[in-house]
Amino acid sequence: MDGGISLGLPAATPEAVAFLLVGLFGGAHCLGMCGPLVSVYADRLADREGVDRRSLTVRQVRQHALFNVGRALSYAAIGAVFALVGGLFFDAFDSVAAVGSGVRATTGLLVGGAIILTGVGYLVGQSAAIDRFTPTAVTRLFGRVSGWATARVDRLVGGPRILGLGAIHGLLPCPIIYPAYLYAFSTGEPLRAAALLGLLGLGTIPTLFLYGTLLGRVSARRRATLHRALGAAFLVLGYIPLSHGLMLLGVSVPHLHVPFYQPL
């Protein structure tokens, strides 16, 4: 790091842009997980207002916004926790320079490789295969949490508690969010990770907001196009820790300049 103190916050860096693009293009995938719940609470809101789902009122717009802000805040908070754990993990090895460098390099290779493989899966149209890597226990937990939330939509949808309904999604199994959490772990910088995951969450908002209000559905063709774009964004995101890991091993490769990116 250059002189001065870094708060670890991303500016207009390649990683910040990549996280935002992952969110924007990943919104189509989010519909598979969040779409049913969004449809349920959107219908409940419309019923309460006595209007058609697509006839938006100020209150409906506010509730949709709160739901999506809850998701983004949840991603940011969990990303910060992963980064904190990563920072403690790296600090444990930093007392021995050779070991610490090797651990950081290995982490970069593993995290970067996992994210790149995820991107390739989306590029070749095999995103469903990625879902199969989710452990059965996690899938069951998702079903229980989703069922719990759906059963309580009527209580949560009408006021500020809809923030919590959105926040639940940060804990659910998702091939978009989990690679991002791994990346957060590799940075070891909670503030930076929170900002990056927040950007990702904000990027998903347009698709889910439009789905819950005006669209109601996204065509399979449009979703496939967005998945390919998502795959390209993941390739960029995964290359950052991968290239830093290689350089720590003495392998010179082209790399994207990410200010204050210390661990890898």
Automatic annotation (TrEMBL):
Domain called Urease accessory protein UreH-like transmembrane: residue spans: 19-239
Taxonomic superkingdom: Archaea
Transmembrane regions listed in the UniProt entry: 16-38, 72-90, 102-124, 162-181, 193-218, 230-253
Keyword hit for Transmembrane helix: yes
Pfam families tied to this protein: DsbD_2
Keyword annotations of the record: Membrane, Transmembrane, Transmembrane helix
Name this protein carries in UniProt: Urease accessory protein UreH-like transmembrane domain-containing protein
InterPro entries per UniProt: UreH-like_TM_dom
Signal peptide region: none
PANTHER family linked to this entry: HEAVY METAL TRANSPORTER (PTHR42208:SF1), HEAVY METAL TRANSPORTER-RELATED (PTHR42208)
Natural source organism: Haloferax gibbonsii (strain ATCC 33959 / DSM 4427 / JCM 8863 / NBRC 102184 / NCIMB 2188 / Ma 2.38)
